[in-house]
């Protein structure tokens, strides 16, 4: 190896876009509420983009990325750019159409939304059919290049790669059987060629195409698509250099395929995909290419282990033509700035790196001499997901035994109605929490307001006629953060917001030490709700997998071990709720699917320990205590067998927003416990019609007996307004009652009219 090559440059694959103080969120919500104009919204966007480019340039990035900004979602941006817009959303301005696809309108439900790989970020699922007429319909990537140049910054535009775009899309309704969006690759590539030419003309020297789908198990057809796509883009007559960024894992078989095309540069995630470094064939494929070596993690909040990073860089340098120090993935999934967290213990803060610090790290690593660590072995792998042995999960009596005990104890009707837990988080609650934090409200006064809200929610549910009530979760700003605030081993941030979807953000807590529950967390709220009504009240807990999935876990323990520590805390809480007389307890696991390894290898091991942790948390419950769980955005049909293994008595899942796919699939028929497929989507202000709810309940009744079908919305109601909630739940209860009467006519009538079940 030559002693010195050109010193490597540094880059990042993307940056947070919501604004350091969630400026974009506030601008979007003002616009949607009619309090601001489209111009106001665009002005905020421009200011945020300019701020970002200036800051990245100041931190030492020669060519920061552009087009990483989005008003809602980058997959939706791509669909809009390609004019892949279903007709039902057209009309009005381009901005109206864009938000109609994301959020629906009064009459048209929005496109489906689901999680972006194994993150907690949600993207809008494009609909592509055989007739989708792709064309270059906008100029956002070009406009951002110009915008940055006006403030003196040359950027590298970032596009979603055609293969990932099409693999994430779903077939448009009415598409012929066997049609897959990937069939349209040729037409999409043609538009990308036009776009690349336009970007070259605009002065972009390099374009980044994001292809995270390359780290999943690709079918032979998808591998061929990679080859076709990048050969054709590579042969474009006039184009910038191409950087294809793979991330969230190792590209495996896709790497030699990609490397065989004329693309100049390849991005590798060397944190979660570190095994590329130990794969001689993969390393050999890098010959002649520039590699953006992702050694600084975009998925955690910890400072980079410098020795590990340098060793990885050294390995890549031995094989690639040129190495650029990079982040493992875009920094979309980490907060802005650890230095803003002045409330954290300084010793913890020093260990943290948010986006701002990670940029400084890539710049610093790029400046270090290439061979500063002679003889450093190949980087040690991060701790394995699961340690060799895990605690016994414990088990409950067989389901049939429990079901009988619960039926006798709870005396619920068929098609029981309930909600998923949260009721609207209204302005008065947020104001009360802010006042408490600012010392303008005493703890006792705050507690009084929460109790009043619980009473309001209980009375409302009684009036609406729901069967299993909830307390409404008014005390929780967030279903994970609330538990994190009450458990040892967690730290919560002040400004550590990360985009979840559209204008929604969460502040993932940081797990930095051993997890312990110093005292009961939810018991006093559940007890208060119980005291107000004769009907059963469901206790509400967040499950161990979800608490960890929506936090930043400590880097020094196997993930499973951290999850089991949390499971122990939840188990103690379940026991205390039972002792307080709560006989229905819901332990939510909406993130169960999210942590599923992206490749098939590893999924079984994960599901085994994730399920075991859930059972550990819930298996202490008595037979007559009904354990519920809830999953959403989980593509639950993929993991229904594992959901069954959770051994919960009742499972509620998102179904309405995904058009009842779960009910159409085969798995549901074998589902042996209670199931509540959500009967309406709660992510849109739209109030569902009775017909819609009825259709979904009938589909459920086709697959399962009425005693095991639960009637509930897709998810919690915290983002809705009371007026919408009342209207929607009134309809839901009415439809449930009607079908209940129909499913169980009185015996005399049934004998006279044997054909009464005809629809
Ligand atoms: C994202 S799942 C939400 C479940 C929670 N119990 C709620 O209703 O808000
Ligand atoms: Zn949910």
TrEMBL record:
A Gene Ontology BP annotation from the UniProt entry: methylation
Function: Catalyzes the transfer of a methyl group from 5-methyltetrahydrofolate to homocysteine resulting in methionine formation.
Protein name from the UniProt record: 5-methyltetrahydropteroyltriglutamate--homocysteine S-methyltransferase
UniProt binding sites for L-methionine: 420-422, 473, 588
Binding site for 5-methyltetrahydropteroyltri-L-glutamate: 25, 120, 504-505, 550
Cofactor binding description: Binds 2 Zn(2+) ions per subunit.
Zinc among keywords: yes
EC number: 2.1.1.14
Keyword set includes Metal-binding: yes
Active site: 683 (proton donor)
Essential cofactor(s): Zn(2+)
GO molecular function list: 5-methyltetrahydropteroyltriglutamate-homocysteine S-methyltransferase activity; zinc ion binding
Residues binding L-homocysteine: 420-422, 588
Entry's family note: Belongs to the vitamin-B12 independent methionine synthase family.
SUPFAM superfamilies linked: UROD/MetE-like
Pathway the protein takes part in: Amino-acid biosynthesis; L-methionine biosynthesis via de novo pathway; L-methionine from L-homocysteine (MetE route): step 1/1
